[in-house]
């Protein structure tokens, strides 16, 4: 899947929950009249549904081990939307209450999975928050347009939310997959530090919405759908602010300022001389809260390994929900002791404290970019098509590949297989170069079972031709030196490839790689068998000089012998796997010289 459809699917998933839940909250009083219960009871049901969503996250983490998270989210979100629609279509208290409660529980994956999916892509957390804000705006406009018929409004919102959640299933491959990658330094510390900050971002939303809507109703006597209409108009500039300010969400250093902006919003509302300026306070509060959440996700979730990413996204999402409920309740409680404006202004104090707590979220320690960075690489045709594969490795590192797609991935990196995506090597994009250019420029070389020396030419002559193409000043001397590295090849320069054994062909293919002097060496199918000792020794020496070595090997023992890190390459994912260091007693013997016998 290309980036645009995948991001559209992620945006749909992020928007579905706020669309359905926001419609219920904004139409609480009107729905109470239809169902024949007080509007406060509808609010209580909606808040209980949110608590059930938080409680259901534990089950989501269990199910995510057996079901792909994006499919689980699509199914749960679609059923939750249908539950909301059912509550609007059948205005009987048992059906209404059951629909809201079931929707809350089924919507649990929406609290975590869309944010976890977006965390890995730069800029995606801000776009995800913009999508959630768009869903809230849609809820406000539906509530405004259908305020006289709240049941129909709930049916429309529920069905739209179900369709959006189902569309999230199209984000295949975007959901986090299990990995053995360790957490970056400081990452787990930042998760703990982020919890109270997430709680306070939720507080900003809950307190501002509750207090602002109440002020619109009782200070300026705006009744019915009028307060929600002001909110609906305010959400449009809030969405624009999030889109324009998305770069502010790329650094943890912006968090204190965003929280202070969110704290200023209740003060703006409390002092507003008219409903228009109060609506501007809605825009400031919601935009600041969304950007702060995106900044937290960028700083806290992105450095985590996939095995902890979903749990951290769920935990922080639950903290934001609890914070919103606390702000919602506190704004209502303060009105019992203070005037309307004063009560709303007092809700600005906790976010100011949050700005101080945000200083504890420093983000992961910066590390240099990977030497090889493969992003969203897809090979649509071939024995094992790949979809959105990704890996990273450092210069001088040896990484092993296993699985059915390992050879396909190496061929794509070398330029021998048509592919889509990005291949960055030392900051340079290889996708603009063909296979010959990649090799001639010394960027990468694929060493496989069959050498490049033509069958009809002597081995030394063919190697000399390759050395000349690589720019060696003395091609004949370079060819002889490459053959002399391997004792099994000495004296075979006058022979032909057709007379060689398989092991000798493997070594000859590696001799060609030595003449290329690549920055990235791709080794496919020659790291095992009788020539393994010689191949391993040469690869170790090349890695010591800074060459990145990527090896496709067929079995786990070979991975242990060659690398400390590996990837399993399957049709729809590339999963990093832990490679424990083997005991010296179990390590294959490697000859002192790079030659070892290859007979």
From TrEMBL:
Residues passing through the membrane, by range: 12-32, 44-64, 76-106, 126-145, 152-175, 195-218, 230-249, 277-296, 308-334, 341-361
Keywords from the named record: Amino-acid transport, Membrane, Transmembrane, Transmembrane helix, Transport
Residue span of region Disordered: 578-599
Gene3D superfamilies per UniProt: P-loop containing nucleotide triphosphate hydrolases
SUPFAM superfamilies: P-loop containing nucleoside triphosphate hydrolases
Statement: the UniProt record of this protein carries the keyword Transmembrane helix: yes
Highest taxon listed in the record's lineage: Bacteria
Family in the record: Belongs to the ABC transporter superfamily.
Full protein name: ABC transporter domain-containing protein
UniProt organism field: Actinomadura chokoriensis
